[in-house]
Amino acid sequence: MPDHRETALIKAAEYREKQAPLILGIESSCDETAASVVRAGREVLSASVHTQIPVHRLYGGVVPEIASRSHTERIGSVVRDALDKAGVTLEEIDAIAVTYRPGLIGALLVGVSYAKGLAFAAQKPLVGVDHITGHIAANYITYPELEPPFMCIVASGGHSHIVRVDGYTDFTLIGRTRDDAAGEAFDKVARAMGLPYPGGPELEKLARGGDPEAFRLHTAFNEGEGFDFSFSGIKTAVVNILHNAEQKGEEVNRADLAASFQRAVTDALTIKSVRAAREYGLGTLALAGGVSANTALRDRLQRECERYGIRFCRPDMRYCTDNAAMIACQGHYEIMAHDPSPLSIDPNAASFLQMM
Ligand code: KG4
Ligand code: ZN
């Protein structure tokens, strides 16, 4: 068997020369086992996902050990399904991209180990992808002509960051949450309201019938100078309203409270990210991460961007939450710009943004 590193470097160079290279993406950072085949970085040939949500719902949140075990059980069939749906063989794949950070370490380990095994056995270049950069890349799938530079607001279960996308593999951190991530706040508030996991989409449904002006939950910090956010104060305010009402034996209008919470979070994300785009002179603002599936946030950002003549981009609904097409897409740009990853690459619980 030839040395893998040498072959990987040669095949990565061939990848860059090809007209329509094929990349297989693998994602297992949290509670979705996913695989996807993408052509020339932007054309999705297949996107297979096995979600573990029904299992974790029984416990009210993701149970890491159950997640790892389920990834182990499913990863082989999900990868096979993605190859079959794309109508290609493993031999025809030109490179393999895998999420190696951030996420649950045991869950990441399953995808990374599987991708390493596949890359070694099939003698393909391997590229480790940061999950957050994958979420940003989901926009390239929806907007085939989108190119950096642009401003991006990343809002997921673990992250809320304003990132300047200077190039496909070049990012500058502009702002971040000082405490909870936006998705985390959605999930915790939903839980306090007795809604099932994952709370974000459930809370959005409840908020549809509510008055967003009923409770004023905005904080001075989120409306002030700078580009950092804070969501834990808004979350605590909601919990206190529920608690006080319960103690007094009063009924709270849950739809109004959900709508008011959603309004406070979407206002903060919108105000700061649009201001960041304007202050840095960027004509495009993109939205990324699981919370990008929130229609109120999409609409609010769209309106605010229109007001300032900024182009607003957000991924198609199916690429908002965790998927492997976005990992394959970012993997393409990583391999275009850098040497492939060594087979010794290790999973890491933290994102590069947390290290900035
Ligand atoms: O990106 P993602 O799928 O996983 C992480 O990388 O964290 O994001 C999941 C997060 C969860 O917190 C979930 O509640 C939130 O995104 N989310 C939503 C919506 N859909 C997913 N939050 C608000 N509204 C939604 N429609
Ligand atoms: Zn994610």
Topology readout:
Layout: H1 4-17, E1 22-27, E2 32-39, E3 43-51, H2 53-57, H3 64-86, E4 95-101, H4 105-122, E5 126-130, H5 131-142, E6 150-155, E7 160-167, E8 170-176, H6 182-192, H7 199-207, H8 220-223, H9 232-248, H10 254-279, E9 284-288, H11 295-307, E10 311-313, H12 325-337
Helix pairs in contact: 3-4, 5-12, 6-7, 6-9, 6-10, 7-10, 10-11
The protein binds 5'-O-[(R)-(carboxyoxy)(hydroxy)phosphoryl]adenosine (KG4) and zinc ion.
Q: What is the total domain count?
A: 2
Helix content bin? 40-55%
Give the overall silhouette.
globular
Look up the CATH topology of the largest domain: Nucleotidyltransferase, domain 5
Give the integer mean of the pLDDT values: 96
Whole-Å distance between the termini?
40 Å
What is the gyration radius calculated from CA atoms?
Answer: 21 Å
Structural class: alpha/beta
Task: Indicate the CATH class of the largest domain.
Answer: Alpha Beta
Tell me which CATH architecture of the largest domain applies here: 2-Layer Sandwich
Q: Order of SSEs, N→C?
A: HEEEHHEHEHEEEHHHHHEHEH
Q: What portion of residues belong to β-strands?
A: 15-25%
Poorly predicted runs are none
Strand order of the largest sheet: 3-2-1-4-5
Number of helices: 12
- Strand tally is 10
